[in-house]
């Protein structure tokens, strides 16, 4: 994504023979203004979810920070749950090459749940990132197998550092609170997929969708700026 806002301005409207300032510019999409005010996007509406996410991730430095540290947060979380050990047995034989890594633990369950949801939202990006998540599961499981509690300790340190960089990205570069304070579900379930989609977008994936998102994100950022200006 390459997101950006526009300069907000004010206008006036007449009601009951009196003139009063409007809260938002008439150039804004009225239906979008109402949707921003009234509700969070549906969890199965990819475009709305991406537009919501993009409005919170407009600065290039913040985008880079998220591209690096969102996957790190996800991977270290897999290490945490991998520490619970094997939860069941595979109903089929695992290839000898993968046997030391392919442990049927809670990390695998997380990857399967995330993967199914991502496939429903966006099949191509969802499938390709599902493959990446399977690699993360194998790596997290093997790391815990090799180092045990020490792996969890290191993963915990990386996890905290990654979250710290996220907040720095928003506070220092974005100038806006993290999306998790407005949409917790998106922050924990959708951020990994959105970061991956951003990488795909850089290589020209789904250009028409990118253009539509750019317009909607610009509108959302404009709404935010005008509301912030009125609140001062």
Give a summary of the structure in a few sentences.
This protein is mostly helical and 232 residues long. It is built from eight helices and two strands. The protein starts with 11 loop residues before the first strand and ends with a helix.
Any overview of this molecule?
With 232 residues, the protein is mainly α. The protein is built from 8 helices and 2 strands, in the order ββαααααααα. Helix content is 66%, strand content 3%. It has a two-stranded antiparallel ribbon with strand order 1-2. The N terminus is likely disordered.
Name the strands of the widest sheet in spatial order: 1-2
In DSSP terms (H or I, runs of 4 or more residues), the helix count works out at: 8
Largest sheet: 2 strands, antiparallel
Task: Indicate the radius of gyration in whole angstroms.
Answer: 21 Å
Mean pLDDT: 84
How many beta-strand segments?
2
Distance from N terminus to C terminus (CA atoms, Å) equals: 29 Å
Q: Quick one: overall form? A: globular
User: Which spans have pLDDT < 50 for at least 5 consecutive residues?
Assistant: 1-26, 31-39
Percentage of helical residues? 55-70%
Percentage of residues in strands = under 5%
Class computed from helices, strands and strand pairing: mainly alpha
What's the helix-strand series? Answer: EEHHHHHHHH
Key terms for this structure?
232 residues; mainly alpha; two-stranded antiparallel sheet; 8 helices; 2 strands; 66% helix
SSE inventory with pairings:
Blueprint: E1 12-15, E2 18-21, H1 30-38, H2 46-56, H3 60-82, H4 106-121, H5 123-147, H6 149-174, H7 184-202, H8 207-231
